[in-house]
Design brief:
The chain is of the alpha+beta class. The chain has one domain: Bacterial fluorinating enzyme like (Elongation Factor Tu (Ef-tu), domain 3, Beta Barrel), CATH 2.40.30. About 20% of the residues lie in helices and about 35% in strands. A seven-stranded mixed beta barrel has the order 2-3-7-6-5-4-8. The protein is globular, with a radius of gyration of 19 Å. It starts with a helix and ends with a strand.
């Protein structure tokens, strides 16, 4: 009986590992999903909203998507302007926080396929007095 229970537990654990190893975490080679744009677009800017503020570092998850960046001619390695609550900041479009020095602004497409605005090891929402629902506009 004990052997049967142990085998059943091992079988269950191995099937959990198989299922979880195929899940999309936004890391590695799995591309993020491609949600549709809801932005207000011009030839030089994209406007959206802050959809969520991260608890620990105040990262700003926005409604803007990769297609919005492409529409205004932004690519990885570019620096763009973001405006939120009357605060204008320069932001590097990269891949990860370590692309910029501590305290600098970084943006990248998160695991949900949306633009994240953040400060490396600093609180982005406090800096901009930003909260969910606030407007955010990015431009070249």
């Amino acid at each position: 009986m004990r052997v049967l229970v142990a085998v059943s537990i091992l079988t269950l654990l191995s099937s959990c590992v198989a299922v979880n190893s195929g899940s999309s975490s936004g890391t590695g080679d799995t591309p993020p999903p491609t949600p549709e744009s809801t932005a207000t677009l011009t030839s030089q800017s994209a406007g959206g909203r802050i959809s969520e503020v991260g608890e620990e570092y105040g990262n700003l998850e926005t409604s803007l998507v990769a297609a919005d960046l492409t529409h205004i001619g932004l690519a990885k390695g570019d620096v763009f302007t973001a405006v939120c609550n009357g605060n204008e900041i320069s932001v590097y479009l990269g891949d990860t926080y370590s692309d910029v020095a501590e305290g600098e602004w970084i943006a990248f497409i998160n695991w949900e396929g949306k633009l994240r605005l953040a400060r490396n090891l600093r609180n982005a929402s406090e800096t901009l007095s930003a909260k969910a629902g606030d407007a955010v506009t990015i431009s070249r």
